[in-house]
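debug: dumping io for the single-chain case to check the tokenizer round-trip. Nothing else runs in this session.
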Amino acid sequence: MAGGHLSLRKLAVFLLVGGGATALHYLIAALLWRAVGLAPPLASGLGFGLSALFNYAANARYTFQSTGAHTQNLPRFALVAGIGLALNSGVIWGLTHWGWNAVAAQLLATVLVLAWNFVLNAVWTFHNGGQGRGTD
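debug: decoded output
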């Protein structure tokens, strides 16, 4: 399968890319905070933004092997991620409001948002009419 189809290989690569993006976010934030002296919120925000660009580029190339235009795919990626952020916050707020432990709420929110991001990026963001490089 190529293009926007779902597969276990794509899920595995998606998880690796996401882990790499998270590590990059933390590394950039730590360097900007500790070595450059930026305030932690600004350092983290810059780290998040730069790691999001890495996340997009790596998912486009390695996870979904997209041949689509970045002018179409990048705004879609940003929308999916933004809705994922809202879902994360909403799930945590709702579950903790109903008495759930915050860590348990975050774990469930992470699983739900990960599934949201993977499926929407596969079937919409990087779908490109079923065209892609390579096969699964």
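debug: round-trip ok. Helices lie at 8-36, 40-63, 70-97, 102-125.
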